């Protein structure tokens, strides 16, 4: 059935279709409508789940870890400062291998105060052992929540997943979304039956102290299973395509990259705008393409390395880590180490600044200029009010 | 692709109007997206909302800067903001006003129409007396002015999306549609 | 205001108090006081959430600060003698 939904509504409907059993939430802009819709669905009896309004995001994530131990399929959503407040519990969730799925309405972290969209909150949590899926549109949000459960709960993975929804740009935009039928979702996503579970009839201790003699090995298992999740993600995407007639190209979606000289690596909603710009520039005969980073954790190093043959690679970061370039840029550059192509970082779309088609067209023309004249500068802040008159 | 910009005030329902229009288009088999200018929600402050309608799936996730149509939910906004900014040369303007289009002081060659959505909303007791909700009435006028989304689809979408007084809201739209002055 | 990032102060600060926010532009309806009916009870002054009812000296008739009044209508709703009406903003 085609419906008109915001990405937040799509995420909540996906949670319902996934038959989640426990939702523990704390509201925060621009995620709040997910929490509200979960509460409504449970109170109306449309979703047979326990809904808990917690006193903080830290508590929400803690509650889900407990619920997941008992064997419940768990769900929450957050954003920005809420995600930051969860930080230590995020590491608990992955460390004790709970396959919690959490949409994150990606937003700035203050200060000064700013409620709008960018990727800083999720990029900051890239090292906590959670998978990260970045969505381009509302349909992908719905589909990815289902896929995320499929991958997370795979016994060979058992790691939590964030589904990144660009704050406001997707969370508050209505778009056409195909809502799958429940029986097809049930076919795709069987019920969650972890083993072992917390059971008073069969007492065990969970998450206790690991001494130095085994800590390294527990960490190594997480590293291995995160690596193995790459294959599971590809399989989950392919199986989704068979059942629902849509899939997303696995970890990296290549758009018109085959014969491209320059390729822009970009994540989230701006990738859609970038595809439109690619079509427009292709009409001019310019060989440009987009590699959409759909999954940032696990990092798609093989897919990125396949772009080694491209002369110029641009990496768009919708956040800035105060080091030497954006986080996506540095990881892409690292995956391409040893190749002789030129890699440039474009930083933009911060704090709700619109990433316009004109910005992206400027980026592609800049990359084509680099193709002829060499690298102008390593890091470019797109749309910066710098008095240059370029923007 | 058709792009529409709504100008309103917080509380008048400009954002919901864009969503109702997008839903109507989607239910008619088109693709559409609707989004507000992402600001701070304050009742009475000027807000803008946008709607894109196309045959193809909507991939653009960026603002609308050169709309085909402008819909103004409050005539007083004409003094406060440049409601014509970026409007295409062959575009249209619809203003909620009891006045005739030529009395609004808008300097454009684009087609301008008015519809008295405030009176319709007050008659049907939509919203409060100090803050009538005019979005559904003006959508009826817009359906008449632009004719690319059928009034029936707009009415169905209003009945689906209006949080309260669904039938009264649909009637407000139909009344604006029927009271149209050429 | 600022032209480029170079002009920004390193610490974010506004250049004026919130008095500079001309919230009167948010109005669709404005309060109009009929002084013949007003009994100077100052109920409007007490309840105005935007400090937009002006009473200079006790005993004065109230007036409206139209630069900041948002037109919420609370004054008209709470006025005992019905001296305040909300009128549509002129074009």
Low-confidence stretches of chain C: none
Question: How does the overall form of chain B come out from the CA principal axes?
Answer: globular
Task: Give the SSE order of chain B as H and E letters.
Answer: EHEEEHEEHHHH
CATH class of chain B: Alpha Beta
Examine the coordinates and then state which fold CATH places here, giving the name of the CATH topology of chain B: Pyruvate-ferredoxin Oxidoreductase, domain 3
Using only CA atoms, what is the Rg of chain B? 15 Å
CATH topology (level 3) name of the domain at 34-91 in chain C? Alpha-Beta Plaits
Q: Helix amount of chain B, in percent?
A: 25-40%
* Most residues in contact: chain pair: A-B, 28 and 22 residues
**Residues in β-strands, percent of chain B:** 15-25%
Indicate the proportion of strand residues of chain C. 15-25%
Q: How does CATH name the architecture of chain B?
A: 3-Layer(aba) Sandwich
- The SS-based structural class of chain B is alpha/beta
Number of helices of chain B: 6
Rg measurement of chain C, Å = 17 Å
Instruction: Kindly report the spatial arrangement of strands forming the biggest sheet of chain B.
Output: 2-3-1-4-5-6
- Secondary-structure element pattern of chain C, one letter each: EHEEHE
What does the main sheet of chain C amount to?
Answer: 2 strands, antiparallel
State the separation between the terminal residues of chain C, measured CA to CA: 30 Å
Describe the protein.
The complex is a heterotrimer of chains A (391), B (182) and C (91). Chain A has 391 residues and is of the alpha/beta class. Chain A has two domains: 2-244, Thiamin diphosphate (ThDP)-binding fold, Pyr/PP domains (Rossmann fold); 252-381, Rossmann fold (3-Layer(aba) Sandwich). Chain A has helices spanning 7-17, 32-43, 57-70, 80-95, 120-124, 138-152, 182-188, 212-244, 270-283, 301-305, 327-335, 357-373, and strands spanning 2-6, 22-25, 50-53, 74-75, 101-106, 131-134, 161-166, 174-178, 252-255, 262-266, 288-293, 295-297, 312-317, 342-347, 379-381. In chain A, the strands form four sheets. Chain A has a six-stranded mixed sheet, with helices on both faces. A four-stranded mixed sheet of chain A has the order 5-7-6-12. A three-stranded parallel sheet of chain A has the order 3-2-4, sandwiched between helices. The radius of gyration of chain A is 21 Å and the shape is globular. The N and C termini of chain A lie far apart (42 Å). The model of chain A has no long low-confidence stretch (mean pLDDT 97). Chain B has a six-stranded mixed sheet with strand order 2-3-1-4-5-6. In chain B, helix 4 (135-146) packs parallel to helix 6 and helix 5 runs antiparallel to helix 6. Chain B starts with a strand and ends with a helix. The model of chain B has no long low-confidence stretch (mean pLDDT 94). With 91 residues, chain C is α+β, with helices and mostly antiparallel strands. Chain C has a domain at 34-91: Alpha-Beta Plaits, CATH 3.30.70.20. Chain C is built from two helices and four strands. The radius of gyration of chain C is 17 Å and the shape is elongated. Chain C starts with 28 loop residues before the first strand and ends with a strand. The mean pLDDT of chain C is 92.
């Amino acid at each position: 059935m085609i419906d008109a939904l915001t990405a937040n509504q799509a995420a909540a409907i996906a949670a319902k279709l996934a038959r989640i059993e426990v939702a523990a939430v704390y509201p925060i802009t621009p995620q709040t409508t997910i929490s509200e819709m979960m509460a409504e669905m449970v109170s109306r009896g449309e979703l047979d789940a326990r809904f808990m309004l917690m006193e903080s995001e830290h508590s929400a994530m803690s509650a889900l870890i407990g619920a997941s131990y008992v064997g419940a399929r768990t769900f929450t959503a957050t954003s920005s400062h809420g995600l930051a407040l969860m930080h230590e519990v995020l590491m608990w969730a992955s460390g004790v291998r709970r396959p919690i799925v959490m949409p994150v309405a990606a937003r700035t972290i203050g200060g000064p105060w700013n409620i709008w969209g960018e990727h800083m909150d999720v990029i900051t949590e890239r090292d906590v052992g959670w998978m990260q899926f970045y969505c381009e549109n509302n349909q992908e949000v719905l589909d990815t929540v289902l896929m995320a459960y499929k991958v997370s709960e795979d016994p060979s993975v058992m790691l939590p997943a964030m589904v990144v929804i660009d704050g406001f740009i997707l969370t508050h935009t209505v778009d056409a979304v195909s809502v799958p039928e429940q029986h097809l979702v049930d076919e795709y996503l069987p019920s969650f039956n972890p083993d072992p579970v917390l059971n008073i009839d069969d007492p065990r201790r969970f998450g206790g102290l690991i001494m130095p003699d085994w800590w390294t090995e527990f960490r190594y298992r997480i590293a291995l299973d995160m690596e193995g999740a790459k294959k599971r993600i590809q399989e989950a995407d392919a199986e989704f395509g068979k059942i629902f007639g849509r899939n997303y190209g696995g970890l990296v979606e290549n758009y018109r990259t085959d014969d491209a000289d320059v390729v822009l690596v970009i994540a989230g909603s701006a990738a859609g705008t970038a595809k439109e710009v690619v079509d427009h520039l292709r009409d001019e005969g310019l060989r440009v393409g987009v590699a959409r980073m759909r999954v940032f954790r696990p990092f798609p190093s093989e897919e990125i390395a396949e772009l080694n043959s491209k002369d110029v690679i641009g990496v768009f970061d919708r956040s800035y880590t105060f080091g030497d370039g954006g986080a996506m840029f540095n990881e892409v550059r690292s995956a391409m180490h040893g190749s002789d192509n030129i890699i440039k970082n474009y930083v933009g779309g911060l704090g709700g600044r619109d990433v316009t088609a004109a910005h992206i067209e400027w980026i592609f023309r800049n990359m084509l200029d680099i193709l002829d004249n060499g690298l102008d500068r390593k890091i470019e802040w797109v749309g910066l009010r710098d008095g240059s008159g370029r923007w | 692709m058709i792009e529409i910009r709504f100008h309103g005030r917080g509380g008048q329902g400009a954002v919901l109007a864009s969503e109702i229009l997008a839903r109507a288009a989607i239910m008619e088999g088109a693709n559409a997206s609707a989004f507000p200018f992402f600001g701070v929600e304050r009742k009475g402050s000027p807000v803008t909302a946008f709607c894109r309608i196309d045959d193809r799936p909507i991939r653009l996730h960026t603002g609308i800067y050169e709309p085909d149509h402008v819909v103004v939910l409050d005539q007083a906004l004409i003094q406060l903001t440049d409601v014509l900014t970026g409007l295409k040369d062959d575009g249209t303007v619809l203003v909620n006003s009891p006045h005739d289009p030529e009395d609004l002081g808008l300097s454009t060659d684009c087609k301008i129409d008015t519809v008295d959505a405030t009176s319709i909303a007050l008659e049907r007791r939509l919203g409060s007396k100090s803050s009538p909700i005019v979005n559904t009435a003006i959508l009826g006028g817009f359906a008449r002015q632009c004719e690319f989304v059928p009034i029936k689809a707009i009415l169905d979408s209003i009945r689906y999306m209006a949080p309260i007084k669904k039938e009264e809201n649909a009637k407000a739209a139909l009344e604006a549609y029927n009271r149209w002055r050429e | 205001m600022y032209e480029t990032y170079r002009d920004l102060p390193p610490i974010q600060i506004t250049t004026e108090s919130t008095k500079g926010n001309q919230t009167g532009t948010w109005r669709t309806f404005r309060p109009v006081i009929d002084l013949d009916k007003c009994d100077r009870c100052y109920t409007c002054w007490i309840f105005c959430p935007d400090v937009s009812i002006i009473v200079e000296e006790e005993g004065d008739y109230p007036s409206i600060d139209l630069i900041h009044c948002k037109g919420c209508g609370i004054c008209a709703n709470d006025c005992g003698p019905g001296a305040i009406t909300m009128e549509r903003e002129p074009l």
